[in-house]
Write a structure and sequence with these properties.
The protein is α/β, with parallel strands linked by helices and 269 residues long. The chain folds into two domains: 144 residues, Rossmann fold, CATH 3.40.50; 115 residues, 3-Layer(aba) Sandwich (Rossmann fold), CATH 3.40.50. The protein has eleven helices and ten strands. The strands form two sheets. Strands 4-3-1-2-9-10 form a six-stranded parallel sheet, sandwiched between helices. It has a four-stranded parallel sheet with strand order 6-5-7-8, sandwiched between helices. It starts with a strand and ends in a 5-residue tail after the last strand. The relative contact order is 0.20.
Length: 269
């Protein structure tokens, strides 16, 4: 079982930011990724719909030989909370790893959160932060356009459309003088430079996908499930919509092309 793959899923491509970090810190691990690109984004769906989609995503991953699942989706993580969609194996979302990192990072006790409307509406990030330290001040704001902008390649540091949206979304948060900002959707690190330019160097950015990957690393060590293979692991990607569109944009997340590694599948819904 040590050499089984790590399963990662997201509503689209954002979870690739977790895959990128996994490839860096766990280079010998196989990764099986599922992007539900036919139904992206999850952030505008009801709680019941998000949960149903997530359960279907997990069932798809479990058709393969996997030893752990990462829900690399802020919306799914906010719906699942401290629960698990795969009680028979290690499982994590992206919220708790990011919250732990943010609480350890902040110097003034003021943490900002940006995420999809569903993530922000759930209030789960704030609840998780307060559970660690009730004295923390938390301010959140939904960024409904970010997923669409990233998925459609509006990611250049000087892209005027994305900069304009980011300024509007970040203004209410910066007014609260936060010194730490959680990127509560795994798409957002792709435009990290734009966000950093707006919030300034005094604000530390926490990538939820990267922190989930670090959590997975520690979890696999703890459970003695690290791969013992000597060769580099491989990535295999499955999507519920266009393979070519995924291949075209995946490089923006991973920093390298994925041609020939992407396969189409259907969840029947």
């Amino acid at each position: 079982m040590k050499n089984y793959a790590i399963g990662v899923f997201d509503s689209g491509m954002g979870g690739l930011t977790a895959v990128k970090e996994l490839n860096t810190i766990l280079p010998n691990e196989d990764i099986i990724y599922f992007g539900d690109t036919a139904r992206v984004p999850y952030g505008s769906r009801s709680r019941e719909t998000v949960l149903r989609y997530a359960q279907q995503d997990v069932e798809f991953l479990k058709k393969h030989k996997i030893k752990m699942i990462i829900a690399a989706c802020g919306t799914v993580s906010s719906v699942v909370g401290t629960g698990s969609l795969a009680p028979d194996m290690p499982f994590t979302g992206v919220i708790h790893p990011a919250v732990q990192a943010a609480c350890a990072t902040t110097q003034n006790g003021k943490i900002g959160i940006i995420g999809t409307p569903a993530t922000i509406k759930s209030g789960y990030y704030e609840k998780a932060i307060k559970a660690i330290n009730p004295q923390m001040q938390v301010v959140g704001n939904a960024c409904p356009l970010f997923v669409h902008l990233v998925e459609n390649g509006y990611i250049q540091r000087d892209n005027k459309i994305t900069i304009l949206a980011a300024k509007e979304y970040l203004e209410p948060i910066m007014k609260e003088n936060v010194d730490t900002l959680i990127l509560g959707c795994t798409h957002y690190p792709v435009i990290k430079d734009i966000i950093a330019d707006i919030v300034g160097t005094d604000v530390k950015l926490i990538s939820s996908g990267a922190e989930a990957a670090k959590f997975a690393y520690n979890c696999l060590i703890e459970k003695d499930l690290l791969s013992d293979r000597k060769e580099k692991g491989k990535n295999t990607f499955f999507v519920s919509d266009s393979v070519s569109l995924f291949e075209e944009n995946a490089g923006n997340f991973l920093g390298h092309p994925v041609n020939g590694e992407v396969f189409s599948c259907s969840l029947g819904d």
